[in-house]
Design a protein that fits this description.
Layout (H helix, E strand, L loop, with lengths): L2 H15 L7 H8 L3 H7 L3 H26 L3 H17 L6 H7 L6 H27 L9 H22 L2 H14 L4
């Protein structure tokens, strides 16, 4: 792994465990055992670093969700791919979603970073909506209203469940996933 990737990895970890505004190049320097000048060599400003973090996170999430669609024909299995990705965030050191963290700080993060994470959220919600549309079409899922509205509800519930899961234990997240799935199962 090259130095640039190490810097982005550590910045992403700090974003997910603390927040963007609560870490500095000094924090990165200490954790990585490099000088601040080395970080500035790759990312002149924290704004540049924030955009790099957001760009890479966006690509990683897209890859996971696109893989879930490609590997599974069943909409429930596809949705489980999303739930698994979100659950995986908590498994890696009590983190929260980087996009959710940025949205919580939208008034203080760099504009490019906020815009990239907002774009990611639109992608994820659209991906969920497409999955729900197919699930409804096949008679495998039921829910009130439009798929887009249900997708936004699921996304928001999962973001809240990540916050609670980090603070109060992973079972909170599992409970929310179970309730979402139970609520969308067709009646007998």
């Amino acid at each position: 792994m090259d130095r640039k990737e190490q810097i982005v990895d550590m910045a992403t970890e700090l974003l997910q465990t603390r927040s963007f505004s609560s870490f500095s190049y000094q924090d990165l320097s200490e954790r990585l055992g490099i000088t601040k000048a080395s970080i500035h060599h790759h990312y002149r400003s924290k704004m540049d670093l924030g955009k790099a973090v957001a760009d890479r996170y966006h690509e990683q999430v897209k890859a996971v969700l696109n893989n879930a669609k490609a590997r599974h024909d069943d909409p429930w299995d596809q949705l489980d791919g999303y739930f698994g990705m979100v659950t995986g965030v908590l498994r890696t050191g009590e983190k929260i979603c980087a996009a959710g963290s940025v949205q919580a700080e939208v008034n203080v993060v760099p504009e490019g970073m906020a815009a990239e994470m907002a774009s990611l959220i639109r992608f994820v919600v659209s991906w969920i909506a497409d999955t729900l549309t197919e699930g409804r079409k096949r008679g495998a899922m039921v829910f009130p209203g439009k798929p887009q509205d249900q997708a936004e509800t699921i996304f928001c519930a999962m973001q809240g469940a990540l916050q609670l899961g980090r603070a109060q234990g992973r079972q909170k997240l599992r409970t929310v996933i179970k309730q979402i799935k139970e609520a969308m199962k067709p009646g007998d």
